[in-house]
Design a protein that fits this description.
- This protein is an alpha+beta fold.
- It contains 3 helices and 8 strands.
- Strands 1, 2, 3, 4, 5, 6, 7 and 8 form an 8-stranded antiparallel beta sheet that branches.
- The N and C termini lie close together (about 10 Å).
- The relative contact order is 0.27.
Length: about 140
């Protein structure tokens, strides 16, 4: 059964916490879409993602997703399961507002959450990297979540 709500249910939160990647869609000011897979952490009804040290062609603050968020904070995020047994299909789709966190307590907390979830982040320098915070506005879920 599909539902649409601005608040995540416990079941949706559990689904989000149990997954490792999401796909985030941003759009520039003209509406041109851009989708990338992201690592994320979830806490307090918000999701956090860092522009990490994996190789990039441009500086972190020049990435398309960061530039898009700065000009158009509306994003969509999908976390899903695919299985050949379609009775196991499920997704959570979050539409929300994104922002690049300034240095401070929330940014430090997001880094801590991300390091707890992803061992790879424990050796990366993340303190000077952009942290994206996504605040859900609407949540849609479907299937076996």
């Amino acid at each position: 059964m599909e539902k649409l709500s601005p608040v995540l249910t416990e079941r949706e939160e559990n689904f989000i916490r149990s997954h490792r990647i999401a796909h985030m869609a941003t759009a520039d000011q003209t509406g041109k879409p851009h989708v990338v897979p992201i690592c994320y952490a979830y806490e307090g009804g918000c999701l956090y993602s860092v522009i990490d040290e994996k190789p990039k062609k441009v500086a972190p603050d020049k990435l398309k997703r960061v530039r898009n968020i700065e000009s158009n904070p509306q994003v969509a995020l999908v976390i899903d399961d695919y299985d050949e047994d379609w009775s196991r299909l499920g997704f959570v789709l979050i539409q929300g507002n994104a922002q690049i966190l300034p240095m401070g307590t929330e940014q430090q907390r997001a880094i801590k959450l991300l390091r707890e979830k992803y061992p790879q982040y424990q050796t990366m320098v993340l303190e000077d990297k952009p942290i994206i915070k996504i605040t859900p506005i609407s949540v849609r879920s479907w299937g076996a979540i």
